[in-house]
Specification:
The protein is mainly alpha-helical and about 230 residues long. The chain has one domain. About 75% of the residues lie in helices and about 0% in strands. It contains 9 helices and no strands. The two termini are about 40 Å apart. The mean pLDDT is about 85.
């Protein structure tokens, strides 16, 4: 009798892509896309009501609010549902890297949220000023979606049942107010750094400092999410 072939343990990349494919299927079958599109139309509706002469940089602030809702709605809800439904309990029994679960979700959900936010911004800006928005503003929003998505992953890993709500509350009622404080504390605000990177606000300068702060914040929230997912194994 021949010896049984040893089981092949999937690597990190293969596990991430598998989780990404599963996340994509769930996203397409769910209602999150439709709800996100409705939310993304709100800045467009604002421009349509206010008219071209009645809008300015506040349209970008509106997009930041959209970003603050969509990223948690996609990421926090997905991670929280898996933890609450014990999907992760099954995944722990598989020989896959734990970080691949979060990485696979982010690989799909971050681009999806980014595409909707940027589509809303481009459409609203074109309606308001009959021109495409500066590339720098689009880059700032894309980076902001990534940062808030990682933040949402961290919060959802701590409080999976209420991860989406807590992430939105954190961004809207803590991060955003913190960003307008005339103190060093505002450097902890993701929304403040996004506004700085956009270049639309002369009073908020320091692109290198803003980018560095975002890298640190993403790293901290990402480390928290990864550490928490490892502890959930038990």
């Amino acid at each position: 009798m021949s010896a049984p072939e040893p089981k092949v343990v999937p690597g990190g990349l293969a596990s991430t892509l598998t989780m990404a494919a599963l996340t994509w299927k769930r996203l397409m079958r769910g209602r999150a896309i439709m709800v996100a599109l409705v939310i993304a139309l709100l800045p467009v509706a604002y421009v349509a009501i206010a008219g071209r002469r009645g809008v300015g940089p506040e349209v970008f602030v509106f997009e930041v609010l959209v970003m603050a809702v969509l990223a948690p709605m996609f990421v926090a809800s997905s991670i929280g549902e898996d933890i609450e439904d014990r999907t992760t309990t099954y995944l722990w029994s598989r020989p896959i890297p734990r970080w691949a679960i979060v990485a696979g979700k982010l690989l799909v959900l971050v681009p999806a949220a980014t595409a909707i936010v940027l589509g809303s911004w481009i459409f609203a800006a074109n309606m308001a000023w009959h021109t495409l928005p500066p590339v720098r503003t689009c880059a700032a929003l894309a980076i902001g979606v990534l940062a808030i998505s990682v933040l949402s992953a961290g919060i959802a890993s701590l409080a999976p049942r209420h991860g989406m709500a807590l992430s939105i509350v954190y961004v809207l009622f803590f991060d955003s107010p913190l960003g307008v404080m005339p103190a060093t504390l505002r450097e902890l605000s993701i929304t403040h750094q996004v506004r700085t990177l956009s270049g639309l606000y002369p009073n908020e300068v320091g692109v290198t400092q803003a980018a560095t702060a975002l890298v640190i914040l993403v790293a901290l929230w990402g480390a928290l999410a990864a550490a928490r997912m490892r502890r959930l194994e038990a």
